Backbone:
């Protein structure tokens, strides 16, 4: 079965960096687009970044210039490098995969203090 396990979240001061990881299993990772979404308390889940099987990337405006999504197909892992973090980046970050439906990991909390 599909399994997505995020890690790397934590508490960081504004201006700091974090690197999130998502280990995937149960499907052909290398052939699929992978996504990072985030959800702040009381808000909807929003796209942060995506990366296709060929390595093409797409970012939300809020992430452009600060976040970098990448993937290691040998490790079935997708990453999100987050630099210059801001308090408004505080959220639970989810790794996602869309087949006939969406699959999500358990999420990892990112908290940015001012």
Residues:
């Amino acid at each position: 079965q599909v399994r997505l396990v995020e890690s790397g979240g934590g508490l960081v001061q504004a201006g700091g960096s974090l690197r999130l990881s998502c280990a995937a299993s149960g499907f052909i990772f290398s052939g699929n687009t992978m996504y990072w979404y985030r959800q702040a308390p009381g808000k909807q889940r929003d796209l942060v970044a995506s990366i296709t099987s060929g390595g093409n990337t797409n970012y939300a405006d809020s992430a452009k210039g600060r976040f970098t999504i990448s993937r290691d197909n040998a490790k079935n892992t997708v990453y999100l490098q987050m630099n210059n973090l801001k308090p408004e980046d505080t959220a639970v970050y989810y790794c996602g995969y869309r087949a006939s439906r969406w699959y999500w990991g358990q999420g990892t909390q990112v908290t940015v203090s001012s």
Observations:
- The mean pLDDT is 98.
- The chain has no helices and eleven strands.
